[in-house]
Design brief:
single chain; about 230 residues; alpha/beta; DNA polymerase, domain 1
Amino acid sequence: MLDAVLFDLDGTLTDPATGITGSFRHALASVGHPVADDVDLTWMIGPPLRHNFDRYGLPEHLYDEAIMAFRTRHTEIGLFEASLHDGVVDVLDQLVDHGIVLGLATAKPLDQAHITLEHFGIADRFTVVGAGIADGLPRSKGDVVADALTELGHVAPLAGDVKVAMVGDRLHDIHGGRQNGCVTVAVEWGYAEPGELDEHAPDHRVANRPELLDVLTRLHLDGTDEQVA
């Protein structure tokens, strides 16, 4: 039986590509490092901002200014350029109907997470929201998951008969869930890079929303925890 399911946000519940890549382009241009329109930045969807700027090669002394520019543009514009994946609301509603507690575990700052949930009309499905920024400090996905579990009344990492699933589309979601003793479920419709999910081997892997609902329902109703092909 599942005690709860934690969901990643960007790439898992929503398609944020236009807003996130647009905000990254704005941030990089604002610190004197403009990016050509034909450069693919979708790999930036999911990981923490500092990780992305480091991988891009931005000088470290520009991180804070770039992060501020990203957040300003993303809060005002980028959040509202996202779309909700088809079928997500049905999955959430059916899980709630089964009595499963839902939580969010996202790298977004807390205010942006709440704005996004309210914007798409799904805030009432979630009991807790774990966010990537807490007390003004960046958090790893493992820390975010631990925060959400703590808010749900569990001790992280999980032990004993407590079973919580972590659903996400990137390696950070898999690692964050695994670090905290969660069953990890990777969705294939997000923004994982080629070979990423193969390399990091989640407990379950699903190609579409009906498969996701099936896996989570089986985990809840009969405790089945076998790898899905």
